[in-house]
Amino acid sequence: MTAIKTAMKAKDQTALTALRAVKSAILLAKTESGASEELTEEQELKILQKQVKQRKDSAAIFLEQGREDLATPELEEAKIISQFLPEAMSEEDIEKVVVSTIEKIGANGMKDMGKVMGIISKQLAGKADGKTISTIVKAKLL
Question: In terms of CATH, what superfamily is 2-82?
Answer without folding.
Answer: Uncharacterised protein YqeY/AIM41, N-terminal domain (1.10.1510.10)
